[in-house]
Amino acid sequence: MSSNICRYVSAVVIALPLCTAASDGHLTLTIITQGLSYQAKQPLGGLFNHFNSGVMATAQGITTREYMAIRCDEAWGAFRYPRTLSVGPGYSLQLSDNGELILRILEYAVISQDAAINAMAMHCIELEPRPVVNTIAKIKLVRNAASSQQLELANGYSLSYHYVPTTTIE
Prior knowledge:
Layout: H1 2-15, E1 21-23, E2 25-33, E3 36-44, E4 50-51, E5 57-58, E6 61-62, E7 64-73, E8 77-86, E9 88-95, E10 101-111, H2 114-119, E11 130-141, E12 147-152, E13 158-164, E14 167-169
């Protein structure tokens, strides 16, 4: 019995130097604007080229707002309907051709047509809100180097980010 234990322990000791441990990287973002705090944590696996990022969430959830839209139908006249669109800060993270991580801080806004739609009584013009996405900041991160920074952006956003790269320990 004791010889079996010794063989097992020997096998484990021999296997340990061959093991590698990976530390998963991540990017943590916090944006504060108009008294609200938006947060996102993006896990970074081994290899990636692009993450489908988007609007950041508050503690209560993703920020959306309902807008009015109008469709003109000859048989039925004007048909008004609600349309929910995202508003607030967001981000996009992607890998450039030269290996740099590009972090874009985005602002999701909407050009509302609510006033024009509400004013229509006799005439009908098809209108709906238009989503607009503006890049507020572009930050280049070195893929293998940790980075943390706090920035005040031109539109009043206060950005704080912490980047931890994916590492492999042998």
